[in-house]
């Protein structure tokens, strides 16, 4: 069975609606056809300033949210990155075949380091994409479901896999990105020209999956819309309404056209009220499921330990092959 792998950083107290639509919905859909590995990249979360106690708590919250989103811990392997040391071990080897210039061209590094200035950004933030490449290649993943903002990192991963294979012999599966057009970029509700983002959006631009239902609904109702009044899907001229239509479609499974037809002749306000109710219901359910899972930490710990064990069973033979190809002497 082909393999799918993806991860989402535990860098906030909650994932947001962009993560849910752009990533988790695909993760859930793919777990039927693929052997699935979904993980929480806690090691990626320490590349910027952070609080250790908050990270630990957020990692549990993240795990609970993956399950609340519909990732099934029986069918899919759910684990925490730092519990599988092979990721970091492979990352080092990959860093040694990554060009400095190549790493410098990663736009996420440029965006994130522009906050502090490149001089005070950590080396970890700079090498972040090589750890991400290791996350993927260590499982010989065929497919990586992500949002549009991760495309460049997957491209780097493919290049590194091909380069290693070419230099040291066939070792890695070259993975394909799985980016679903139209939903791979959910926009900020207050500034629909920018993506919904935990690090860049203001509080009203982002619906957090753990927002209380009233707050979430209110954010949708107060979303910035566009001039004019016609409800039409036109991302270029009507980015606000188009973003709401995309969210509406993703959450209901109905095509955008059908929604446009339903609201024909109505005002933006009608669309927002209807969507606010859908989003309110979603976060009510999602929050309740997440909180129930968080109530039993011992159960979550056991689930993650089991996930790490299943993950290592795949990661460890890959690392062994890589070490052999790299010319490292085996313990005998
Ligand atoms: P992260 O944690 O920023 O985001 C998790 C996933 O959510 C997607 N996403 C969005 N999709 C649509 N609209 C948005 N506004 C939006 N914002 C975020 C992201 O594209 C991502 O799929 N580097 C990764 C985490 C990672 C990873 C990996 C992913 C580490 N190792 C290996 C895949 C494979 C990241 O920072 O995603």
TrEMBL record:
MF-aspect GO terms: ATP binding; tryptophan-tRNA ligase activity
Amino-acid positions noted as binding ATP in the UniProt annotation, renumbered to this chain: 9-11, 18-19, 147-149, 186, 195-199
Keywords: Aminoacyl-tRNA synthetase, ATP-binding, Cytoplasm, Ligase, Nucleotide-binding, Protein biosynthesis
Coiled-coil boundaries: none
Top-rank EC class of the record's enzyme: ligase
Keyword Cytoplasm carried by entry: yes
Compartments it resides in: Cytoplasm
Stored InterPro entries: aa-tRNA-synth_Ic (IPR002305), Rossmann-like_a/b/a_fold (IPR014729), Trp-tRNA-ligase (IPR002306), Trp-tRNA-ligase_bac-type (IPR024109), Trp-tRNA_synthetase (IPR050203)
Positions with a binding annotation for L-tryptophan: 135
E.C. code: 6.1.1.2
Keyword ATP-binding: yes
Function of the molecule: Catalyzes the attachment of tryptophan to tRNA(Trp).
Subunit-structure text: Homodimer.
Protein name: Tryptophan--tRNA ligase
Organism per entry: Aeromicrobium piscarium
Organismal lineage: Bacteria, Bacillati, Actinomycetota, Actinomycetes, Propionibacteriales
Gene: trpS
């Amino acid at each position: 069975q082909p393999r799918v792998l993806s991860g989402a950083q535990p860098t906030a107290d909650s994932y947001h609606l962009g993560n849910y639509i752009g990533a988790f919905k695909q993760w859930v859909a793919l777990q039927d056809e693929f052997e699935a590995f979904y993980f929480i990249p806690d090691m990626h979360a320490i590349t910027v300033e952070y609080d250790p106690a908050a990270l630990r708590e957020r990692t549990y919250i993240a795990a609970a949210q993956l399950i609340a989103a519909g990732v099934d811990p029986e069918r899919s392997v759910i684990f925490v990155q730092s519990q599988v040391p092979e990721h970091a071990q492979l990352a080092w080897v990959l860093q040694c075949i990554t060009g400095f210039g190549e790493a410098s061209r990663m736009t996420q590094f440029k965006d994130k380091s522009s906050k502090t200035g490149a001089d005070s950004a950590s080396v970890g933030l700079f090498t972040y994409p090589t750890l991400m490449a290791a996350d993927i290649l260590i499982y010989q993943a065929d497919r990586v479901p992500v949002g549009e903002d991760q495309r460049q990192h997957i491209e780097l991963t493919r290049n590194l896999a091909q380069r290693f294979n070419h230099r040291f012999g066939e070792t890695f599966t070259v993975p394909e990105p799985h980016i679903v057009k139209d939903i791979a970029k959910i926009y900020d509700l207050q500034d629909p020209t920018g993506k919904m983002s935990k690090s860049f959006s203001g509080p009203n631009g982002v619906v957090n999956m753990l927002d209380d239902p009233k707050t979430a609904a209110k954010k949708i109702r107060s979303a910035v819309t566009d001039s004019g009044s016609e409800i039409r899907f036109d991302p270029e001229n009507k980015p606000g309404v188009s973003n709401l239509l995309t969210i509406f479609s993703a959450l209901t499974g109905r095509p955008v056209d059908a929604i446009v037809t339903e609201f024909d002749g109505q005002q933006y306000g009608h669309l927002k009220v209807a969507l606010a109710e859908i989003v309110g219901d979603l976060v009510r359910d999602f929050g309740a499921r997440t909180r129930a899972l968080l109530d039993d930490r011992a159960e979550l710990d056991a689930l993650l330990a089991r996930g790490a064990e299943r993950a290592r069973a795949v990661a460890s033979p890959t690392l062994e092959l890589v070490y052999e190809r790299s010319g490292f002497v085996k313990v005998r």
